[in-house]
Design brief:
This protein is an alpha+beta fold and 140 residues long. Strand 4 and strand 5 form a beta hairpin. The radius of gyration is 15 Å and the shape is globular. The chain has one domain: Histidine kinase-like ATPase, C-terminal domain (Heat Shock Protein 90, 2-Layer Sandwich), CATH 3.30.565. It has a five-stranded antiparallel beta sheet with strand order 1-2-3-5-4, covered by helices on one side. Helix content is 32%, strand content 26%. The protein contains three helices and five strands. InterPro entries: Anti-sigma-factor_SerPK (IPR050267), HATPase_C_sf (IPR036890), HATPase_dom (IPR003594). Keywords: ATP-binding, Kinase, Nucleotide-binding, Serine/threonine-protein kinase, Transferase. This is ATP-binding protein.
């Protein structure tokens, strides 16, 4: 994965959450607070929250790691985009899958693929991976 450098002083944050279903709502709430304080548009905020929910849900449900391991969420704002990352200690890669109309699960990465400008999966330096997405910031 290549990442563009952020301008000096670009807002960024990261926080850790337990690998627990309640962490999905906590991650959304924290991102909403952070981005609202930075005056991100309501539409972009809603999209970012939805996609973050999908990535944290995947980490909670599918990252087969030891109990007590945490999920790390981070975001960065540049002049052109918002980038959100969700890291976990599992090396297992997420997969997009075909779903039927009647399926109740399995659409998370399809949503990420449809709504994000870019997204991907990258290994962490020691163990695990992070899944990320980018959304464009509106031009003034």
């Amino acid at each position: 994965m290549t990442s563009r450098p952020l301008p000096i002083g670009s807002p960024s944050e990261h926080w850790r959450l337990p690998r627990h279903p309640r962490s999905v709502g906590r991650a959304r709430q924290r991102l909403r607070q952070e981005l609202t304080a930075r005056r991100i548009s309501t539409d972009m905020l809603a999209t970012a929250e939805l996609l973050l929910s999908e990535l944290v849900t995947n980490a909670v449900q599918h990252a087969h790691v030891l109990p007590g391991r945490e999920i790390e969420v981070s975001y960065e704002l540049s002049n052109s985009h918002l980038r959100v990352e969700v890291a976990d200690a599992s090396d297992e890669q997420p997969e997009q899958r075909a779903v039927d109309n009647n399926d109740e699960r399995g659409r998370g990465l399809l949503l990420v693929d449809a709504l994000a400008t870019k997204w991907g999966v990258s290994p962490q330096s020691i163990i695990g991976k992070f899944v990320w997405f980018e959304l464009p910031l509106p031009m003034d």
